[in-house]
Structures are given as structure tokens and as C-alpha cells.
């Protein structure tokens, strides 16, 4: 009876460990959804749809949570807790990254013009500061495009949060510049600020 109990326990531990290893191994291969471009640099690096990645994360969280409730989890309990924390963190990073990209694409293009830089030097200085923070993040992601590697950058979520707050602040304070543009191009009076910025950043 004792032998049967040990055998049953060993089998339970092996099964839970095998499932954990399978899920973890597959997750380690998942690639960032970067949009394909002819020549990829940190300046041309663009995230595509992150929903499929978030779905994988949510699926893995459900699996790990189920495994955590298994009576034979003791041997890998700490590993599961770490994986759950990492998945939660990466999901927050991806969401913050997507927000950053949306605002950064518009503002970096806008401030590539001499007119914007000269008329709003204080904002241009902030844009330059954000560029300095973003550039090493982009280079890091290009070195290894797997999700677990690209998101494994010191204080990445905190950095994206800080940059997003700065970009939002800049966006909210562009009123005078946009009014000048609307005076020069009257049809811009009929569209929202976000659409004006998009127009200016692509023309």
C-alpha cells in the first residue's frame, strides 16, 4: 500500500511537471508581433496586433492557476508563481507599449519638422529625452524578438508608463500650435485635434 501511494504521488508529480514544462517551453518561443519592414531598426520598429499574445498569456494563466491547485504542485509551486507574475507583468508591458507607439509615431513625426522644433523648443527637448529612453529599448527588442526576451528590460513597464505620461502631457499642450495650423489651413477647424496631429505628422 505504501509503495502504491508513492507510485501514485510520483505519477501525479510527473504529470503536473510535464504539463508545466510543455506550456513554459511553448511560451518561450512566442515572438513579438512586430510588423515586417524592409529594414528594421528601433526607428522603424512597430508593434502589430497584440491581442493574440494577450490571448496566449490569458490561456497560460488559466493553465498555471489550475496546476497551482493540484495536490502534487509542491515541487514546482515557486516556479508557477514566478510564471504567473511574469505573464501578468508582460501583459501590462505590451499594453503600455501599444499606447506608447500610438502617441510616439505621431509626435516623433511631428517634431521631425524644423517648424515644430523651433516653435515648441520646450516640447522638443522632452521628445529628445523620450527618444533617448526609447532607442535602447528598441535595440534590445531587435536583439531577440521573443516576447520573454524583448520584455526582459530593466524597469520596462515603469519606463513606458513614464514616457506615456510625458507624451500625453505634450499632446494636451499643443493647442496653440494646432490653432496656428488651423488658421493657415481652415479646413482643419472641422476635425479633432488627434486627426489634425495625424494629418500634420504625415504631410
Keywords:
203 residues; mainly alpha; 9 helices
Report on the structure:
- With 203 residues, the chain is mostly helical.
- Helix content is 72%, strand content 0%.
- It contains 9 helices and no strands.
- The protein has helices at residues 2-27, 51-68, 77-110, 114-119, 121-143, 147-150, 156-172, 175-184, 193-201.
- α1 runs antiparallel to α2, α2 packs antiparallel against α3 and α3 crosses α9 (193-201).
- The longest helix is centred in the middle third of the chain and has 34 residues, at 77-110.
- It is elongated, with a radius of gyration of 23 Å.
- The model has no long low-confidence stretch (mean pLDDT 88).
Shape: elongated
- Overall mean confidence score, pLDDT: 88
Strand residue content: under 5%
Question: Which sequence of SSEs, written as H and E, runs from N to C?
Answer: HHHHHHHHH
Cα-to-Cα separation, first versus last residue: 79 Å
Helix content: over 70%
| Secondary structure: number of strands | 0
Main sheet record = none
Unreliable residue runs: none
Rg for CA atoms = 23 Å
Task: Count up the helices.
Answer: 9
Structural class assignment:
mainly alpha
Amino acid at each position: 500500500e505504501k509503495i502504491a501511494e508513492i507510485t501514485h504521488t510520483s505519477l501525479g508529480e510527473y504529470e503536473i511537471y510535464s504539463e508545466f514544462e510543455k506550456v513554459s517551453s511553448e511560451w518561450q518561443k512566442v515572438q513579438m508581433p512586430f510588423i515586417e519592414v524592409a529594414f528594421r531598426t528601433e526607428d522603424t520598429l512597430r508593434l502589430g496586433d497584440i491581442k493574440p499574445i494577450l490571448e496566449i498569456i490569458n490561456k497560460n494563466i488559466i493553465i498555471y492557476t489550475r496546476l497551482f491547485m493540484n495536490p502534487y504542485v509542491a515541487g514546482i509551486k515557486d516556479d508557477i508563481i514566478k510564471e504567473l507574475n511574469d505573464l501578468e507583468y508582460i501583459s501590462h508591458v505590451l499594453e503600455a507599449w501599444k499606447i506608447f507607439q500610438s502617441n510616439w509615431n505621431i509626435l516623433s513625426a511631428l517634431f521631425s519638422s524644423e517648424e515644430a522644433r523651433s516653435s515648441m523648443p520646450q516640447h522638443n527637448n522632452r521628445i529628445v529625452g523620450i527618444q533617448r529612453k526609447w532607442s535602447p529599448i528598441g535595440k534590445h527588442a531587435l536583439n531577440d524578438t521573443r516576447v520573454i526576451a524583448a520584455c526582459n528590460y530593466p524597469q520596462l513597464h515603469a519606463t513606458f508608463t513614464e514616457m506615456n505620461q510625458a507624451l500625453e502631457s505634450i499632446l494636451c499642450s499643443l493647442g496653440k500650435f494646432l490653432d496656428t495650423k488651423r488658421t493657415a489651413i481652415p479646413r482643419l477647424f472641422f476635425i479633432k485635434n488627434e486627426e489634425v496631429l495625424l494629418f500634420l505628422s504625415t504631410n
